[in-house]
Amino acid sequence: MNPNFRNFALWVVIFLLVLALVTLFQNPGHRGGGSEIAYSQLLNDADAGKIQSVVISGQDVSGTYVGGGNFTSYAPNDPSLVSKLQGKGVTITARPPSDNTPWFIQLLVSWLPILVFIGAWIFLSRQMQSGAGRAMGFGKSKAKLLNEAHGRVSFDDVAGVEEAKEDLQEIVEFLRDPQKFQRLGGRIPRGVLLVGPPGTGKTLIARAVAGEANVPFFTISGSDFVEMFVGVGASRVRDMFEQAKKNAPCIIFIDEIDAVGRHRGAGLGGGNDEREQTLNQLLVEMDGFEANEGVIIIAATNRPDVLDPALLRPGRFDRQIMVPNPDVTGRERILRVHVRKVPLAPDVDLKVIARGTPGFSGADLMNLVNESALLAARRGKRIVTMHEFEDAKDKVMMGAERRTLVMTEDEKRLTAYHEGGHAIVAFNVPATDPVHKATIIPRGRALGMVMQLPERDKLSMSFEQMTSRLAIMMGGRIAEEMTFGRDKVTSGAQSDIEQATRLAKMMVTRWGFSPELGTVAYGENNDEVFLGMSMGRQQSVSESTAQKIDAEVRRLVETGLEEARRILAEHKDDLEALAQGLLEYETLSGDEIRNLLKGQPPIRDGGDVPPTPARGSSVPSAGRGRPKESDGGLEPQPQA
User: Fold this and answer.
1) Active site annotation includes 419
2) Which residue in the list 274, 276, 285, 419 is annotated as catalytic?
């Protein structure tokens, strides 16, 4: 039965019971047979000698007439009533006041306070002990046991992380046949730490291990261990491992373990000691005096740098398995998993979609497929076409189009030249990704953008690529200045300047691209105090070195600015042609831009939807705060 319906029915029964009691007390019953007469009528009948006998019970008077017939009446507190009746020769019978209330009502009234007290005590006791989160169960583990009802997951449902699947196959084989390893003196890893950015499928991989091995799977978050009460975290760790031992062999999955496993001594505040007690108990349970045979710990984090070294040593988390964002092949496999139940049109090419989504995680790709299906449904289609995937990709990357935003002609013209400047510089620098799209249709906070699509996944960047990117970032600002004059330059290049400064600073302080400072890493402690290991921020460079860093960063950005100025001065006609094309067509693909620069107008086939933009550099509207950094397509994430 539905718990809500059961509670509603209980309150209805209680209400009806109370209503019945009130009704009974207000109408305790009839005082006897016969007609009811007024007290004045009683006195008149007595004076007239019509009454033969009466029975007085408290203030209730009943009697019989001389000629027959009964009556009842209610007398006030009148001491002279008895003498008046005696004077008229009426036979008087006195009785104690009678209570006509039913016996079970009297019994209920007598026991009602005791019953209410007992009921309240039982209710509160059951509420406090009904779950681990209740007042009497705050020391119980919050780990949830997943079973077949939650859906069985196998390695077939996991794609794009083939290396991680291979490493975890040993865990599955051990859970299926532990004697195979123990015969040769081998010991299965007690713990496996899955390290990777959010959305890469760490939880899904752990569930797949449990599904393949067909063993119980306990799941808990790192934040579930610590509460405001002292000792609760350690108690929950003990209770969790006790449950796991009863269900061994089994798997315990701790998500976001960095919430409880941070380096001891880090952070501030009294709650830090409680977290350390929880971590100490976890360390003891994983590899202490008591063996936990058959209990395997799988944990996930995206901050392995803040974990305590004692947690990562062999015997606890023996293995660290990287779960990175998938490459182009992995993205295609992930897409094939997610489109199993989606009817696709013949023009859908998953390889093209995979190539056009660099840096996407598994969760991003799942969201892309879902958005495509929803978009096709809104358009009244029965199958999902490539247009839906392209539009959904643009929406996921940059947000929905704001076609209702009213832009003046001056704003459109400025946006067209700004984006044209980015694109023209991108076409003429020596090392960069091909231009995929350019648009002046507002998306999110950006009024326009240019997208560059990498031909392959990039793991590093060369110095030539970095300087080319700096020039591309400055192209929009220079195009505004050359076309409208220095006094008419807007704040549209805010995001470009921020990204250029960040890239130049990384080139100087991390990658050794400054002749002045040499190949030395000048790392700055930018981590938050509560997330890292230190108790405060530290300055790792001297004041003179910091000044040199600032000077080198400015030099690199200024070099990119001058390179963009040189390119746009040499290709001013191309900038004008591209800006006019954007004003006319609003969105241009990379091939259309190339044809336009050759003097050939774009050819539109009149299909379902005209090409729409993806991501790229942005021109935010003035006065709207910090713009959304939608330049991701222009800035591949370099790996140090």
Assistant:
1) yes
2) 419
